[in-house]
Fold:
Amino acid sequence: MRELLVIFFAGVLLNNFILSRFLGICPFIGVSKRIETAAGMGMAVIFVMAVASVITWAVQYYILVPLDLGYLQTIAFILVIAALVQLVEMVILKVSPTLYQALGIYLPLITTNCAVLGVAIINIRENYDIIQTAVNGIAGAAGFTLAIILFAGIRERLDFAPIPEALKGFPLALITAGLMSIAFLGFTGFKLAALFGL
Amino acid sequence: MSVFSDFKNGLGNENPTFRLLIGMCPVLATSLAVTNGIGMGIAATFVLVGSNVIVSLLRSFIPPKIRIPCFVVVIASFVTIVDLVMAAFTPGLHKVLGIFIPLIVVNCIILARAEAFASKNPVVNSLADGLGMGLGFTLALTLLSAIRELLGTGTILAAPDFGFPGIHIFNKDFAPVMMLLPPGAFITLGLLIGLINTLTRRKA
Structure:
């Protein structure tokens, strides 16, 4: 249990997907102009990353490893994720149209979010078991959500700031992300394992 | 459009990193050293050229409704080739680039070129486009990693895989470590794009 807490906090704060692992930069900058849309994207990512982590883990250990097809990992994972996103979209539309309204437009974008494929590959490379995989998936996505919501908050304020013409938009977004990343570097000093008594 | 202008397009006007602003994750993550940058650039260029050619060859056979999954399978196959080849011949570089090799699959540049260019143009033009885009990407990556490697380590062009220690420019003790950490990547790339915006605006 304590080990899972370590995985969770390490995923959210220490190895934040955006600010220290550089995964999922496109949606981070693309969908962060308003806090509400950023939060919607974050929720959709948490859901998809948690489910995708578990399913790709099962594909790896129940299909690819027994059949000795490890080299097909990349192809298999991306197809599973693409199909999963489609399926999730259809299920949500059927079960809860309100949720679909909220998440709808973000769901198809998630297929090409490298954080999803990234977390699936990291889970396998770290040799996590299925519970650790699920926790790591949720933690990675929670870190993504935290970063994108904070970032959207900063960007809303930047709308009113006098900015040099050449830095408007994308360049300034990158510099802002850099400053946030400095703040998150502060968490590197945390000794999580010791904190949870491991 | 001529083949040459398709090639040139990716290097300048529509440089994927500096102009189209897509495919940023590997640029930020693998720009620690010039050799990493060039290695990543070549890997992506190979995938881009390969997928552009195959998609262009198959463009009249792929049903429009399921084109995206088809493109993804083609791209993923080329990524697997690169992954295995690099693991065999440049194990050091393969280890440093880590998950960013398999993640070429979800690099927006490649799918975007398959969708926007290769699926509508003849093979030769698609090849030129893939090569131009790939080299444009490599160029951007090399530029950013040269700045980060020089300022972060005081040395440039270090290539441990080939036993080359690099050209020593200044003492490592004066090098700001921040350049090698994630913030260095974000801030340097932001300023670099800003600089390029300023230069091109003045010219226009």
Chain A touches chain B through 42 residues (CB under 8 Å).
